[in-house]
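Notes to self after the Tuesday call (sharing in case useful).
The group wants a holo model before anyone commits to mutagenesis around the pocket. I volunteered. Ligand is cytidine-5'-monophosphate. Logging inputs and output together so the record is complete.
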Amino acid sequence: MLTARPPAKVNLSLEVRGRRADGFHDLVSVMQTISLSDRLTVEPADEITLESAPASLAGPDNLVLRAAHALRSRSGRQGGSRLRLEKRIPTGAGLGGGSSDGAAALALVSRLWGMDLHCSALLKVAAELGSDLPFFLYGGIALVTGRGEDVRPLPDPEPTWYLLVNPNVHVATREIFAALRREEWSDGEETLRLAGAVRDGKPVALGRNTLQAPLFRLYPAAERCFREVEEQAPGRTIVTGSGPTVVALYKLREEAARAASLLEHRGYWTHVARSITATAEGQETPCR
Ligand code: C5P
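Result:
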């Protein structure tokens, strides 16, 4: 049996530069994997099957199943794999959990089947399954551009604490991009500057997130949550991905935990996580 701990990610900055001919958007983002993770195991079997906790996530759209099927059609093999997923990362939250599970499934299943696929071959399959999957084949911290398929790893910064706060709202990435207005596009410079600072070994900071505006238009509860977190961490608060999870940056775990308990009392889901490196335990990062 092979096991992985697919991590969540946070976008420290995310700018949309425009719309591409294929309908996807041209992004510039700095992404970081964090210590909140799911658990995925694979075992040899006759068929490809998925059990998950909660069971409701084991449908045919699950990226873990789609990853295994994509590898099977690529290899032309008959065999299967018994996949088990324990979910801890909230879904529809902007934390990339589904994509991370899918990327880990590509790495584990290809190994289980002895396919000997290296980074470039896995990246190709990953990019076909979803825009966030390629990043998870690298893990750690990286500058991500294009649709999400162009990933440039950055050196690990000092370990950082992230307070995650979710207003218990599920968001579909597609609807947020659909609500984005042309005048909200930007040139990506702020995110590129942030990546440059990380490359120079400076402490991690947050940039901006283009998708906050459409998120807040569609989900006023997400904006209220953002304002409440920002009160606790002024100037160090951002929405991750298409949201609605709000992320605040902390140097000290205790301070993040104090804010977490306050916000939890107001009915929010909270979690304190730290940045992890690409080589942390349970990470499947064949592109590093
Ligand atoms: O690639 P993925 O399936 O994760 O994307 C979900 C949706 O998010 C896409 O259908 C598209 O509407 C939007 N998206 C986009 N540009 C990107 C990534 C995602 O427009 N670079």
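Two things stood out.
The chain has a mean pLDDT of 97.
Residues 93 and 120 are 29 Å apart (CA to CA).
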